[in-house]
Structure formats: structure tokens, C-alpha cells
Design goal:
The protein has 143 residues and is mostly helical. The protein has one domain: Up-down Bundle (Four Helix Bundle (Hemerythrin (Met), subunit A)). It contains 4 helices and no strands. Helix 1 packs antiparallel against helix 2, helix 2 runs parallel beside helix 4 and helix 3 packs antiparallel against helix 4. The longest helix has 31 residues. 22% of the residues are buried. It holds the Pfam family MAPEG. One of its GO terms (cellular component) is membrane. Its main location: membrane. InterPro entries: MAPEG-like_dom_sf, Membr-assoc_MAPEG.
Length: 143
């Protein structure tokens, strides 16, 4: 099976997103806030934590998948994926008040994005056997 790191990380991200949504729902139910934030600061922070996750997770998942596709599964990519998941769990805990979680989660996410992005840019130039450009296949001629 290929793309194991990408599959595991994407699945874990889906579960983290569900957890973030559940945390928002808890406050909505407790305070009968069905639309918007109702001026509740805790709800705003939880909504922003989920929005922040949704803003960063796609880029990291795409980078992990493309790097894995280009160079295969490796321990460094497993570590990067694991650190990303840890960062994305720490960040919302920090948004709830544990400030080290927010700082560590944010810094780790940004460093991983920088590292994965830089590696993705460098990878084609570093590869011994570069992946051939597949191009776009032309449609079959009309009959």
C-alpha cells in the first residue's frame, strides 16, 4: 500500500477536526448559541482554533502527500506528520487558556510548513532519479 503517511495523517486530521467541532458544539449547547458567537469569548476562541486548523491542515497534508509520492515513506516524514498532529492538538488547548500550548502549536506548525515547503521545492533538484513529467494527456480524437 502506498501513501501510508498521507493516509494516516489525513485520517488523524479528520478526527482532530471532529474534536474541534465537538468542542464548539459543547459551548453552543451550554449557552443556547445557535448562530454566530453570541458574544461568548470562549466560543470565539474555539471557533478560531478550528478555523486556524482548517487554514493550515490542507497545505501540510498536500505537502506530505506530494513529498511521500515523490520520495517515498521515510522516518523523517513520519516525524514531521506526528509533530504536525501534536501541534494541532496543542494549539486549541492554548486557545482555551494554556498559553504554552498555543505558542508551541503555532511555532511548530509554522516551522513544519516552512520545512516541508522548502523541502518540496528542493526535492526535484535533489532527486537522483527525478520523476518524469507526465504532462497532461490529450483527449482521444473524436470519431
Amino acid at each position: 500500500m502506498g501513501m501510508t503517511i498521507s493516509l494516516v495523517t489525513a485520517g488523524a486530521c479528520a478526527l482532530i477536526n471532529l474534536w474541534l467541532a465537538f468542542r464548539i458544539g459543547q459551548i453552543r449547547r451550554a449557552h443556547s448559541i445557535f448562530v454566530g458567537d453570541g458574544g461568548d469569548d470562549r466560543l470565539v476562541r474555539r471557533m478560531r482554533a478550528q478555523a486556524n486548523f482548517v487554514e493550515y491542515a490542507p497545505f501540510v497534508l498536500i505537502l506530505i502527500a506530494l513529498i511521500e509520492y515523490s520520495s517515498g515513506t521515510g522516518i523523517a516524514l513520519w516525524i514531521a506528520a506526528g509533530l504536525f498532529l501534536i501541534a494541532r492538538i496543542l494549539h486549541p488547548l492554548g486557545m482555551d487558556g494554556w498559553m504554552p500550548g498555543r505558542m508551541i502549536g503555532t511555532a511548530l506548525t509554522l516551522l513544519l510548513l516552512l520545512g516541508l515547503g522548502g523541502y518540496a521545492i528542493a526535492l526535484p533538484f535533489l532527486a537522483r532519479n527525478p520523476i518524469p513529467d507526465q504532462g497532461v494527456a490529450a483527449p482521444p480524437p473524436a470519431v
